Hints:
The chain has 182 residues and is α+β, with helices and mostly antiparallel strands. Helices cover 57% and strands 17% of the residues.
Amino acid sequence: MALALRMARGGAKKRPYYRIVVADSRMPRDGRYIEKVGTYNPMLAKDDEKRVILMEDRIKHWLSEGARPSDRVSRFLEAAGMAEKKARNNPNKGKPAQKTLDLIEEKKGKAEAAAEAAKEAAEAAKEAAKAAKEAEKEAAAAAKAEAAEAKEAAKEAAKAAEAETPAEEAPAEEAKEEKAAE
Length: 182
């Protein structure tokens, strides 16, 4: 028969209360036990002396008989100074699960993609601004060219008008001379 020092749950729903018992390890958690050797009330404050109550002489007796404490009970015994503190090393406990790691990578990827898209959008905006400035410059240059062409056309029109005016006056002068001759 393998003896175990373990906790048996009692109390109401969401109001746990545990008995620390010596039981056959094959029995159910809350089933038949050999002897009650203490209590644990997690509802009390951590510094309350009635939170964990142990019968030290009976626990020592059952440990000498070969009873093996559960992890939680061994922690209580270590805190009471009845057992040597075990070195516990569980490096995987603080490590995130694979799903969490995958989610973190996915978030990083999305963040990088968003940053890259923002960078591309900023570059596109800069290029659009440059194109707008160039278009403005081209429009200004075209307007200057049109103004220059218009000035030249106006000058040419003025020259043509001056050239045509004497040509029209000449036939009029000839007509005057013909009338005078008659």
